[in-house]
Design brief:
It contains three helices and three strands, in the order βααββα. It has a three-stranded antiparallel β-sheet. The model has no long low-confidence stretch (mean pLDDT 84).
Amino acid sequence: MPLDQYQTVKEVAERLRVAEATVRHWIREGDLRVIDIGKGWRIANADLQDFLKRHETACRTANCPPDGAGHASRP
């Protein structure tokens, strides 16, 4: 993880288009891993990607694989 990029709570909130309070809630609940560096929390890109992967929803379109195993991918 040392070569990972880190983001602030504000940056993650802006990226996901949610309130900063929502990101802080995910952190307090243990859903989103952070690193406390003294000036505030930082979220590694790898941890954010893991969080997003765990919260994917099933695909809703006709483009899903026939076995239903597909997941929607979001940018």
